[in-house]
Amino acid sequence: MTISPSDALRCWILSDRSNYQTCHIRLPDGESMSAIAINRAYYGFRRRLMSTGQALKILYTLSDPSSPSHITDVALTTNVKGAYFLWVREAYALPKGNFIANTSAAYQPVTFLKLPEGTPFTKISVPDLDQVLSSIAFGNHYYSIFKVEEDPEAVFELVNKLSQRGDEVLVAATPEGSAVCVLEAEASPV
């Protein structure tokens, strides 16, 4: 069973301010709000999250297609005190004043999804390994399960490490914890 990208949440996890710019935007209804710009897209401020556990729980809730609060594109920034700030993509926003967005994030966003109950894992093989791997079929790709982790702090540490080394990362909520997965571009089902 393949899970569609519309059933997931794309999240920029940004701890380095050089990957985004702060600004103010105006929404189509005239409302003005604080925002950040990433790759010429605007993300309006939604809320402050006080812990990693709270941040992970919110990301899974937003990624759930059956949730009334389902959205598909957000950003998460941090401050030196360890708080997280949630920003939601505002597709029709315009910058206020003479602001010009010109910052590009150094790595890919992370995909978060809540697996439907009973979703089977797919067995795959990859050219550079002799063993069969468990994976999640997402879109038209396979993501091998790198590690299943219960601790939210460990999930974010692992996601940051994998993202910064250039891996495309997917994090799925499972009954055992968060399955941190990496794209296997050359995988084939077994």
3D architecture notes:
This protein is mainly beta. It folds into 2 domains: 5-95; 110-189. The protein contains 2 helices and 14 strands, in the order E-E-E-E-H-E-E-E-E-E-E-E-H-E-E-E. It has a 14-stranded mixed β-sheet, with helices on one face. The chain is elongated. The mean pLDDT is 91.
Q: Please state the overall shape, judged from the principal axes of the Cα atoms.
A: elongated
Terminal residue distance: 14 Å
> How many beta-strand runs?
14
Strand content: 35-45%
**Fraction of residues in H or I helices:** 10-25%
How many structural domains can be distinguished in the coordinates? 2
* Element string (H = helix, E = strand): EEEEHEEEEEEEHEEE
Oligomer type: single chain
Low-confidence stretches: none
Tell me the structural class.
mainly beta
Layout: helices, strands, pairs:
Elements: E1 9-14, E2 21-26, E3 32-38, E4 41-49, H1 52-63, E5 73-78, E6 84-89, E7 94-95, E8 110-114, E9 122-125, E10 133-138, E11 141-149, H2 152-164, E12 169-174, E13 177-183, E14 188-189
Parallel strand pairs: 1-5, 8-12
Antiparallel strand pairs: 1-8, 2-3, 2-7, 3-4, 4-6, 5-6, 9-10, 9-14, 10-11, 11-13, 12-13
